[in-house]
Write a structure and sequence with these properties.
The chain is mainly α. It contains 8 helices and no strands.
């Protein structure tokens, strides 16, 4: 009621939209705040060299993992929702299966390239092949983020936003913090 008094020009339909989207916005802000906290913790506890490695690794991950998704993280919820509207349940499963095959093959290819040539990958990312010990953790994070994005897209396609938001908050908001506090606080071992 207090909010309605502050924004009297909003209609009932507009308030319905606000309440429908508010949990997703709150989840995304919580995830963003968590990532900022982890970034600050890394800056304080990993030292100058460790933080530099961590920051560059995060940039590399955020550059490479969308390539593995092939844009299907956006397409999957749309096509699942379209087939749900038409009540074609088997088509929904086929879309998800096809997406898993395409993305799975691209992620396997990325994982293989990164780990079969770790010195070259390290040189490409860090300009120094001696950082090859970081290639396995980077490639594992890419695999994990890609699988997370597909599961999140699946929930979104089925309009299960409660599950999608919880999944997003746990995987991207809580796990990085836990990894930092429970891990060995090295770039190679986590967070």
């Amino acid at each position: 009621m207090l909010l309605r008094g502050m924004f009297p020009w909003l209609t009932d339909a507009a308030w319905e939209q606000v309440w429908e989207y508010a949990p997703t916005f709150l989840t995304e802000f919580a995830v963003m705040a968590s990532q900022v906290v982890v970034y600050k913790l890394a800056a304080n506890f990993l030292g100058k060299q460790g933080f530099s490695e961590y920051a560059i690794a995060r940039r590399a991950i955020s550059t490479i993992y969308p390539v593995g998704l092939l844009g299907l993280g956006v397409a999957l919820p749309r096509y699942i929702a379209i087939s749900a509207r038409r009540e074609e349940v088997t088509l929904q499963d086929r879309f998800f299966s096809a997406t898993m095959w395409c993305v799975g093959l691209s992620v396997i290819l990325i994982f293989a390239l990164v780990n079969l040539m770790p010195s070259k990958f390290a040189y490409l990312i860090y300009s120094d092949g001696s950082y090859k010990s970081l290639t396995m953790p980077i490639s594992m994070i890419i695999v994990g983020l890609t699988l997370h994005a597909l599961a999140y897209a699946y929930f979104r396609g089925h309009l299960q936003m409660g599950r999608a938001n919880i999944f997003q908050f746990v995987n991207l908001g809580t796990v990085p913090l836990l990894a930092f506090f429970l891990g060995d606080r090295s770039v190679e071992g986590g967070p």
